[in-house]
Amino acid sequence: MLTLDALAATRSLVVCVGPGGVGKTTVAAALAVRAARAGRRTAVITIDPARRLADALGLDGLDDELRRVPGLPLDAAMLETKAAYDALVRRITPDPGARDRILTNRVYQSFSRTLARSHAYVAMERLYDVTASGAHDLVVLDTPPTRSALDILDAPDRLVRFLDERVVGAFVGEDARGPRAWLRAKGTAVALRLFGAMAGEALMEELAAFFEVFVHLRAGFAERAAAVRARLADPTTSFVLVTAPDPTHLSDAAYLRDGLLDRDTPIDAVIFNRAFHAAADGAPLARSAGWPDEALDGPPGTERVRAAARALRAHLDDDNATFALARARFGAALPPTTARCALPVLDAEPTSLADLAALLDRATAPQGR
Q1: What pLDDT score does 199 carry?
Q2: Lowest mean pLDDT among 127-131, 248-252, 309-313
Q3: 237 CB contacts (<8 Å, ≥6 apart)?
Q4: What pLDDT does 163 receive?
Q5: How do the domains of the chain map onto residue ranges?
Q6: By C-alpha distance, which of 114, 154, 141 is closest to 28?
Q7: Is the distance from CB of 66 to CB of 76 less than 8 angstroms?
Q8: Which of 18, 76, 172, 214 is buried deepest, with most CB atoms within 10 A?
Q9: Among the CATH numbers 3.40.50.300, 3.30.360.10, 3.90.1520.10, 3.30.1330.40, which is that of 1-81+135-152+237-369?
Q10: CA nearest 236: which of 366, 144, 131?
Q11: Cβ-proximal residues to 240 (8 Å cutoff; 6+ apart), any chain
């Protein structure tokens, strides 16, 4: 069973998945910092635009370009869908004329900003670009929340189906004789004319032009999709599920857990973040240890203050017991090979590299079951 240290030290790709609002991006950054401080050339690709993360990494900001974190062999980037698509088109389209036709095409501009799952497609392409470069020993991918993470897993096959000759051919025709050739595609002319009547002639022209250019890139997309599919299934790739132990987040995490297992994707570790209230020594509070009654009686104060402190301790103790039960129930549906660990509720979010480096040190031991 892997520990978090072993993940950071031995894996070449770590994919962090989980619901939104559970600290998944922070955990992904902490894993990346852990690996970089051990001397591994590391990249972390995040989907979180929060300024806080850039500040914690010592950067002025994050965008689609990899930026070096000061003092570490660590690069970081934020996946912004439109910018990432534009960069992709520039990388894979050597012909300047074709490149300009794609970038200025209204269908492409809408596709790259708003199409359902377009974020998953470009995340797949960005992951391919970073891993294929060979510049890093470890890449940590922070995925979009919940269901979108499964979209990234499905994106390689879905993109190949989308670019299938029978689909694209319906718009450009087998001979691709210009932007109106889709009207001559057998069996589709009536449907396409009807769609054209509803959407407008100009939009249909741009749609046909969009497919006409992209059809020539189909083989490259298919090759990269196959490479990413193989990369995600590689033994040196690990999936880490990050969640919090409250019912709403656990429900979303269960959807992810079951979706990954249904896809025969092993979950190497589950990290329960904000999963317990810690005593001064870092261990979970408990009625029998960690916060003795004498600590409440020591300082001078009224009985009302001491009673309030005892009530707060009882409340935190109850939270810890509830969280522990929730973690156990969630973990019962996981394979025995999946490592489990819990991180405490923090007084404040990590705001520096030192904070990120220390975060995983606060995981409950052992870091396995």
Answers
A1: 46
A2: 309-313
A3: 11, 12, 13, 14, 15, 231
A4: 61
A5: 1-81+135-152+237-369
A6: 141
A7: yes
A8: 18
A9: 3.40.50.300
A10: 131
A11: 7, 14, 15, 16, 17, 27, 31, 267, 268, 269, 270, 271
Question: What is residue 358's three-state secondary structure?
Answer: helix
| Per-residue pLDDT, 217 | 66
Q: Is 109 exposed, middle or buried (0-12, 13-18, 19+ CB in 10 A)?
A: middle
Percent of the chain clearing pLDDT 70 (strictly above): 72
Distance CA 20, CA 299 (A): 41
Q: Which amino acid is at 317?
A: D
Tokens of residue 206, six digits: 């741009």
Could you tell me the two tokens for 352?
């520096």
Residue with tokens 């870091």: 367
Q: What is the pLDDT of residues 304-362, one digit of tens each?
A: 777 777 778 788 888 888 999 999 999 999 999 999 999 999 888 888 999 998 899 88
- Specify the pTM: 0.80
Token pair for 35: 């690996």
Residue with tokens 């994106």: 155
- Give Cα 342 distance to the centre of its chain: 19
Residue 121, amino acid: Y
Q: Distance (Å, rounded) from C-alpha 160 to C-alpha 267?
A: 26
**Long-range CB contacts (within 8 A, 24+) of 127-130:** 127/13, 127/45, 127/228, 127/231, 128/224, 128/227, 128/228, 128/231, 129/88, 129/91, 130/43, 130/45, 130/66
